[in-house]
From TrEMBL:
Keyword Ribosomal protein part of the UniProt annotation: no
Domain of life: Eukaryota
Keyword Isomerase recorded: yes
Region called Disordered, residue ranges: 1-91
Cellular-component GO terms for this entry: nucleus
Native source species: Meleagris gallopavo (Wild turkey)
Protein name: TRUD domain-containing protein
Alphabetical list of Gene3D superfamilies matching this protein: TruD, catalytic domain
Amino acid sequence: METVEMNNISLKRPHSEDDAANADEIKRQKISENSKTGSNSEQNVQTVIEQPDKSMLEDTKNEIIPNEEGEEQEDEELEDSDEDGDPESFADMMKHGLTESDVGITKFVSCHKGFSGILKERYSDFVVHEIGKDGRVSHLDDFTVPVDDEDPSEETFTVLSDEDKKRLEELQLLKNKETSVAIEVIEDTKEKRTVIHQAVKSLFPGLETKTEDRDGKKYIIAYHAAGKKALANPRKHSWPKSRGSYCHFVLYKENKDTMDAINVLSKFLRVKPNIFSYMGTKDKRAITVQEIAVLRITAQRLAHLNKCLMNFKLGNFSYKNHPLKLGELQGNHFTVVLRNITGTDDQIEQAMNSLREIGFINYYGMQRFGTTAVPTYQIGRAILQNNWNEVMDLILKPRPGAEKGYLVKCREEWAKTKDPAAALKKLPVKRLAVYSMDLRMVQKIRVFPVGLKI
C-alpha cells in the first residue's frame, strides 16, 4: 500500500513554537462556536475497533485540546497558583516535548486533499461503549431492579437517621472504641424492628444485630460479628443460595476514569473496592458505558446510588455466578466529534469514505512517547542498554519550562548534588506519595544497578 507524506491533513492540533498563540486562537474560536447552533463545524465519526487500545482515535486521547468551560477556569487558576500548585496539564507539558514528526508520524494512507479539526475539545466529544466477548455493545437502557422476595424493602434506606448512620459507619470501620451501637425503636412493632435489622445488615456489611430491652424500651443493638474480617468479606450467610453471587450492571460515567468510579461506588456502599471487577479501564476525559460486577451487593442497593451520585448512572442489573476479568472484552465502540473543521463538504466526505473503506495507519499516539521534555522512550532505551547513570539523569534532570515550583527545586537539587535523598526533601509532604517513586527507584538503582528487575 502506497503512503504519502503528511502535509495536507491533521486531525490533531499541531505542535509548534506558536502553541500559546494557537491556544488563545482556539479559545476564541470556541467562544464564537458556542454562540452558534446548527452549523457544519461538527462531524460525528463512528467506528468499531476490533482490539482495544490500538486505535489511532483512542491513542490520541490526551492530545492538546482545550478543556471544557469549567476545566478552562481551573487551568487558569493553576497558572495563577503558587509554586506548590498542581503540575501542568498534558497540553502545557507537550509544548516543551515532541512533535508528530519527531516520532515518525509523517505518512497518510491516502492522497486526497484533507482537512483539519479539533479532536476531544470537550469530554463529551468522546463516547465509548464497551463490546463484550459475546459481541454485544453495552448500553444503559434498563433501570428496573430484579425482583427478589429476600430483598429488603425501600423503607430500609430511610429508616435510619443520619446520626445513626454515622455511628454505625464508625463502628463498621472500627474508628472508635465502641463495641456496639444501640438504636432505640420509637414505634415498637415487630415489622419496624425487622426493617431496622435489615437496614443495618444490608447497609453496613460486617455488622450483626439483636434486640434488647433496656428500661422498658426496645433497642436494636448493632455489633461486629468477626472484627475486620467481616468488613473485607461480605456476609455470606445472608445471601440466597438461589441467587448468583455477583451482581452485574452497566455503569455510565462522565469525566471520570474507571478506578475513580469504583472508589466512589465503594465509598457510598461502604465496602472495599476489590469486590468490584471489570473487563477494561475506560478513559477519564470521555463519556463511557461499560459492564461492572460486584460481589454480594444487591441490585436494590446499587440502584439506590442513582439518587445520590452525579455523572454516574447504574442499570441493566442481573445476577450471575462469575466475576468479570480484564481483557475479556472484544473491544470498544467509539463515537468521536471533530470540531472547528476547516474544509469543504466534499473534502470531508472524501476523507470519511477513505477512513471507512481503506482505514488508517495505526500509529502509536503521542502520549506513548512521554508528556514532558524528556521522552520516555529515551529512558527505556537507556534501561535496555544498562546505562543506569543516564537513566537517573533522564528521570531527574531539570526540565526547563515544563514544570513549576517544588519540582523545579527538586530537580535542581539532583543536578547539583546527585543525591536522591536530598532531592526528596525538596518535595512538600503532600506531594511525596505522587513524586517520590522516581527518587526511590533512583536510590535502588544506585545500590543495585545490576540486579534491578524491570
